[in-house]
Amino acid sequence: MSDHDQIITGFALWHLSLPVNARRDHGIGSVEGAVEIVVLRLSAEGGATGYGEAAPWVVFTGSVEATYAALDRYIRPLVLGRRVGDHAAIMEDARAAVAHCTEAKAALDTALYDLRARIAKVPVWALLGGRCRDHIPLSCSIADPDFDKDLVLMQRLRSDGVAIIKLKTGFKGHRFDMMRMERLRADFAEFDIRVDYNQGLHHDIALACVKDIASFRPTFIEQPVKAHLRSLMARIRDAIEVPLLADESLFGPEDMAGHPDIADGVSVKIMKSGGLLRAQTVARMAAARGMSAYGGDMFEAGLGHLAGTHMIAATPEITLGCEFYQASYFLTDDILASPFPVQDGQVVVPNTPGLGIEVNEDALARFALRRSP
Ligand SMILES: [Mg+2]
What we know:
Elements: E1 8-19, E2 24-26, E3 29-31, E4 34-44, E5 49-54, H1 64-79, H2 87-97, H3 102-120, H4 124-127, E6 135-137, E7 139-142, H5 147-160, E8 164-168, H6 174-187, E9 192-196, H7 206-214, E10 221-222, H8 230-239, E11 244-246, H9 253-258, E12 265-268, H10 270-273, H11 276-288, E13 292-295, H12 302-313, E14 318-322, H13 326-329, E15 342-343, E16 346-348, H14 361-367, E17 368-372
Helix pairs in contact: 1-2, 1-3, 2-3, 11-12
């Protein structure tokens, strides 16, 4: 029997609540106290395991309850008893069985890649086309409604060698955004600064606010208005000289096919696209039409970051770095057995089999709200 014919015999789920060290405000909502994720562990008959994370956010991609139910009730029976080599067929079946729930499908895809890569004794990036980079520049988000706390974080980022920040705007008024932008440009001049509204601007005032912020020449401005206001996105794009990125407006390849010209670039997230290969497809579709691609994420733990890291390591079209900061700067405890690898402001791409770092099952038990079986 070849390794590809091994049968998937285990499908274990954890719904976790992970404490966080600060409040984060975005244009669409706030996170405080804890973030909730779902972790999936697949086991094969030969004894190998593979892990995947789903990191939904109810105001953005969907609820953790729907994610858990999608995996537990609808996807589990499609996976158990299948051959590990039938990865693509399993993903097609999962997509047909459950609408939306892209984070659940991202967790399944990640776990299948991790499992296959561990069996093959290669890193996940080797199954995604091979490596194009060893390091990915890290961006950290500035999103505390108490700006003094973010100024402390800025000093920490500076001493850690992190050189990119994303200022979250559109949650506490234009004056607050302008004040912070001015202060960051003055006191942290060496940083590459990007801006993300997370849909936070009302369409009545969006163009004027974005023009003001664009005068600071951030590297890009992301998703100023509601996801469905695509023609307004296109108008804003035409009115400013700073690149406009789409995030909430563009989830998967289908959106890329249907909505050209609304932005200069796209934030690529495996939680939005519903998997690693589909995220690569989004990046390639973007590049084919001259759009940039950025490695975005949700409120993930280190397991989700690792999936994104392997995907970006094998995707030359993603040129704007990544925002896998939460495991290092936001969670009080991560679920990995060793820290998510960041060095001198760069995420270090793992070279060991699978996702490259073990999951700490004690942490899964400690932070679990429920599990099955
Ligand atoms: Mg965004």
